[in-house]
Amino acid sequence: MTIKKIKYHRVYEDVIEQIENLILEGNLAPGDVLPTERELAQAFGISRGTLREAFRILEREGLIETRPGGGRFLNKNLNEAEDKKRIMENIERATIIELLEAREIFETGIVELAAERATDQDIREIEIAFEKWGKIDRDSDDPVNPDQAFHLSIAKATHNVVLVNLIDLHIDLLQKTLVKTVEIPGRKDEVYKEHYNIMQAIKEKNPLKAKEALLHHLHQVKQNILLNRVESNG
């Protein structure tokens, strides 16, 4: 049985992928008990708290079952590709919603600080990133596309390396959020306006206005995700 260490980002996806591989390799069958939390957390290289979050989603999807005093058991096989796709989409959506909730906390502070500290050069960098936003290529191999560059430029305007790293750490999920919403008819224009309002508030050195503009943007993104007004991209 081979288990690889998991990177911090996309943890839920990595966990289910490895459990799926254990099933496909014949190491787990319906009714089998899973290794203990301690064993799996150590093997995956993640905290037990993070592992429990992954189990919570897997249980909700009916893949595993927790029996009081008896551990966790594999509840069913993943025999159909459609089942795998649906589960992965649900996990990805749940992860994005959690990111949006976190962004309401940490990114509001980022835009407020950017509005207070941004230099003329910082603002120019934000404007350049914004001007490129309309050229987003969802199939690009560029690790930092215009949407990501826009968020990073604002973080850099805080002149706080920890806040820049927070945005950089979640770049992958920021891109997934964009892909899941930008194809909604009219949504790209809405996001353009929402980003414009955030940028203008920073240019005006107005922290409160910047915070309100960001919260409005995140609320709109969350509503589009929750209402399932998106085309699944697998």
TrEMBL record:
Classification via CDD domains: WHTH_GntR
PROSITE patterns per UniProt: HTH_GNTR
UniProt-listed SUPFAM superfamilies: GntR ligand-binding domain-like, Winged helix' DNA-binding domain
Pfam families: FCD (PF07729), GntR (PF00392)
Residue ranges of every copy of the HTH gntR-type domain listed in the record: 9-77
Keyword match tRNA processing: no
Keyword Transcription: yes
UniProt keywords, alphabetically: DNA-binding, Transcription, Transcription regulation
Name of the protein described by the UniProt record: FadR family transcriptional regulator
Source organism per UniProt: Paenibacillus profundus
